[in-house]
Every structure is written in C-alpha cells, then in structure tokens.
C-alpha cells in the first residue's frame, strides 16, 4: 500500500510561494491543496516543471508533485476545484476557499451533491470558520456549520490543533 501525504495552506495571493514549495519538497508531500494562490498565466510561479496544477479561478488550486498519480478534473467552481485521483482506489480531492462574506451553508451543500456516491472524498480548505477543534478559543456560526457538516456526512477531521500550521 502506498502512502500519500497531502498539504493544505492558504497562500494569501503571495508571490513568495517558494517557501511553501520548499516545504512540500522537504516534507515529501505528494499533493498540495492551496487556497488564494498567486496565479499568473494560469500557473503558480515557482512550481517545478513536471508538477501538475489544477485551478479554479484564483481561489483554489491543487498541485500534484508526484507525476505518477493519475488525476482528472471532476468539478470546478469560483471557489473550489475537485479532482479524481487514484490512491490505491478512486478518491475525490477538493481544494476550496470560502470567503467570510459568502454563505458557507450553500458551499457545504455543494460538496454533498457534486461528488459521486460511494466515492471516498478528501476536502481541504480555508473555510474562514472558527472552532476550538482547530485552535480558536470559541466557535463562531461558520465553525458550527462546518462541524455539523463534518458530523452529519460522516467525515473525519484531520488537522493539528494549532492554526497556521502546515498539516
């Protein structure tokens, strides 16, 4: 069985994504889901040749370092990109960004309805939601919505308990 490591990070449209790329290489991540990447000419500057890049406008991207991982686009929207990858079996991988000014409830509903039934799903994103589960002192309404979504749809929460840490 192969082991794949997936990173998630909001790059905040920074041109200096090179530090993140260095971390991907040093920590041997196979895949990175990024939110708010700096994109020029449909690419994130500094990504090595041979790495695959998938983008949804300028809000979310998925970078695949390992060229042996087959990937096809399943769905794109203004805020999200979902691809199908084969990690010992088919998996739907989504990178998403949810602006604090946008309705999180409808965004979460999209995840439940757009991915084929009986498909394993990994969602990586910046939801602009606060919860003690991921390091905030108190839960806000967006955090409650996200926690309810995770519980209701039988997702598992995978993260370190501190904010702003590469997981």
Automatic annotation (TrEMBL):
Q: What is this protein called?
A: Endonuclease/exonuclease/phosphatase domain-containing protein
In which organism is this protein found?
A: Caerostris extrusa
Q: Where is the Endonuclease/exonuclease/phosphatase domain?
A: 93-161
PANTHER family for this protein: DOMAIN-CONTAINING PROTEIN, PUTATIVE-RELATED, ENDONUCLEASE_EXONUCLEASE_PHOSPHATASE DOMAIN-CONTAINING PROTEIN
Q: A Gene Ontology MF term for this entry?
A: catalytic activity
Q: Name one Pfam family in it.
A: Exo_endo_phos_2
């Amino acid at each position: 069985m192969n082991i794949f490591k997936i990173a998630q990070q909001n790059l905040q449209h920074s041109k200096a994504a090179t530090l993140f790329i260095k971390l991907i290489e040093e920590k041997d991540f196979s895949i990175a889901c990024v939110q708010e990447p700096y994109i020029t000419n449909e690419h994130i500057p500094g990504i090595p040749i041979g790495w695959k890049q998938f983008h949804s406008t300028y809000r979310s991207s998925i970078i695949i370092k390992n060229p042996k991982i087959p990937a096809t686009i399943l769905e794109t929207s203004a805020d999200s990109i979902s691809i199908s990858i084969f990690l010992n079996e088919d998996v739907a991988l989504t990178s998403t960004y949810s602006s604090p000014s946008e309705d999180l409830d409808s965004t979460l509903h999209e995840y439940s309805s757009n991915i084929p039934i009986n498909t394993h799903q990994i969602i990586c994103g910046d939801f602009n939601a606060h919860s003690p589960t991921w390091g905030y002192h108190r839960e806000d309404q967006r955090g409650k919505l996200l926690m309810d979504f995770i519980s209701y749809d039988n997702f598992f929460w995978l993260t370190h308990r501190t904010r702003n840490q590469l997981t």
